Amino acid sequence: VWGMIQIDNLEELTKGLSDREYTSVWADINNIIMDEIDHYEGFIRNFQDDMYTFAISRGALHEMEENGFKVLERIRKLPSPRQVPATISVGISENVGTVKEVSSRARAALDIALGRGGDQVCIMDGESTRFFGGNTAGVEKNTRVRARVVSQALHELMLDSDKILVMGHKREDYDALGGIIGVVAIARTLGKELRIVLSKETSAIDKMVTVLKEDEFWKEHIITVDAAKAWVDANTLTIVCDTHRQEMVAAQEALEISERRIVIDHHRRAADFVENPLLTYLEPTASSTSELVTELVQYAGGGVKLSKAEATGIYAGIVLDTKNFVQQTGARTFEAAAFLRRAGADIEKVKQLFIETFDSVQLRAKMVFEASRTEGIAISVAPEGLKDMMALAAQSADMLISNEDIEAAFVLYSLNDGGIGVSARSKGKVNVQVVMEALGGGGHRTVAGAQLQGMTIEEAKKAILEHALEALHSAEKEEEEQ
Ligand SMILES: [Mn+2]
């Protein structure tokens, strides 16, 4: 049985300490580790400040497991000068062929233990992967070390799988898709059966999906939620991007069938979490899942190739979540963007994606948010200075009218000739045709419009509201009389 031990947080433990204090902290930890292996009559060697390799008998491993790896707790309970508990991670491998293989598996097991947040033991015996410990909240480190470790752990877990299913959250956005693309690019090199499941509950990513599907690979490997449920089995490795909430994933049933799950996300930890993941890469300091997977792709090595379309798709994820590099953007965000750009990310294409998606969604949301409501009448005004707002104003009116308490909705926008355009919608009770006709426009009972000249926005709003309330009241009166 071969093993590796790493002290998880020697740097944090000893930051700012004198040499003498450093040595004393290190010696305390070292003694416990050495005693533990001695106790089981094993061989151990310390080969870096924080790294050990050891060999023990099968019987010893068995006993350690029976005892629940008390060594973790003994380390954690050491007095610590900086109030951070010391923790260690242990990777153990047995039964996997040559000494070379067994030692490299031990390294992989250690990476998985670290990837899960450290302070735990991971045992890989060629058939199963078992864990002990992991009781402290993992310290999220703002360094690339973790990206490298996670990349290796991800690689190992993929290698261990026959089938890999990749998904994002329900109603995928560009960041979820960017995460999916990165993971798929890594998985694809390993020759495993691979599927991507999309929820199809949104059209927000359609444009990018269409571009991806120009490539045979993407065309053939995207499946529906139902197909995913039928495809997965307990052994399938399921990788979730851009959410960690079980309720939010694109294909929840498929996720629950598979017992081997990985989460890659940048949102703050919620109470609801994908059940019992093998590996969690949760980095709330990162701008986006797309940024995280870009680093994973970089660490995965030269074999992983991104097509131009794929690099563009991941880049779009970063652009979305950083609102074009102004929000939550760190040095690593730009480094990831630079890597994607070198890989052929097409910035013009990304711009095109957002002209019809991000910008318009935001503008629509703004118009809905800023709507005022008087009884059942909603009125909103498109942001000033923007041209060609007719379609967006109409969509905003559609969104407003789809609310329960709104009977009629009006969205005003600037016309290129200086006039005011009005987009009107009704559920049917209020006849917006009559309202618009009173102002020189026209249309139907539920969909109408007008173009107003020689009025200010305020005057127009006032006039519309008056007519609309009149129409609403007369409709209500009619209802009462019936
Ligand atoms: Mn995101």
Task: Please summarize what this structure is.
The chain has 482 residues and is of the alpha/beta class.
Give an overview in words.
- With 482 residues, the protein is α/β, with parallel strands linked by helices.
- It contains 19 helices and 18 strands.
- The strands form 3 sheets. It has a 6-stranded mixed sheet with strand order 2-3-1-4-5-6. The chain has a 6-stranded parallel sheet with strand order 9-8-7-10-11-12.
- β13 and β14 form a beta hairpin.
- α7 runs parallel beside α12 and α16 crosses α17.
- It is elongated, with a radius of gyration of 29 Å.
- The N and C termini lie far apart (86 Å).
- The structure holds manganese (II) ion.
- The site of manganese (II) ion has 6 residues, from loops.
Features:
6-stranded mixed β-sheet; alpha/beta; inorganic pyrophosphatase (n-terminal core); 6-stranded parallel β-sheet; 18 strands; 3 domains; binds manganese (II) ion; single chain; 482 residues; 19% strand; Diaminopimelate Epimerase, Chain A, domain 1; Alpha-Beta Plaits
